[in-house]
Amino acid sequence: MPGPLRPALMALAFALAALVASWSPLAAPFGLLTGLGALALAVRARREGGRVAWVALALALLASVASAWVLARTAGLGRTLDDAPLVPAHGERETSKELDAAAERSRAARERAEQQVDPGPGPRTRN
Q: Is the pTM above the cut of 0.85?
């Protein structure tokens, strides 16, 4: 691998990693940091890296902007109180119904477990 091209390839690798991490709200902070790092590496590698450095610069900029946008939308920027919730919540009746059904499915196993439990002798006191 030629020496002058190596910084540009490193910047490109970081830019691709940032681009992969930019779409998820959980990974977006890492995508933003990696994108900014790739941006700095690409700026330094522009002189000797040729087209690879310019591609890395463009991808790093895209990844940083995309990560910032995902983080802003996740934080609620651009939403109003009238908007539908991002995660629909179940009502109290639906939740109670699901919990009751789960309790009914596991009732036999819980009763068997209660019968099998032997508390054993109690703790001995020291006198």
A: no
Compute the radius of gyration of the chain from its Cα atoms. Answer: 28
- Chain-centroid distance, C-alpha 105: 33
DSSP codes of every residue in 47-109: HHHTHHHHHHHHHHHHHHHHHHHHHHHHHTTT--TTSPPSSPPPPHHHHHHHHHHHHHHTHHH
- Pull the structure tokens for residue 44: 């330094």
C-alpha triplet 30, 16, 62: angle, nearest 5°:
75
- Give a yes or no: residue 84 inside a domain: no
Q: What confidence tens digit (pLDDT) does each residue in 24-54 have?
A: 899 999 999 999 999 999 998 888 778 889 9
21 found inside a domain: yes
Q: Say which residues have a Cβ less than 8 Å from residue 92's Cβ, sequence separation at least 6.
A: none
Cα 34 to Cα 64: distance, rounded to the nearest angstrom: 8
Domain count, the chain: 1
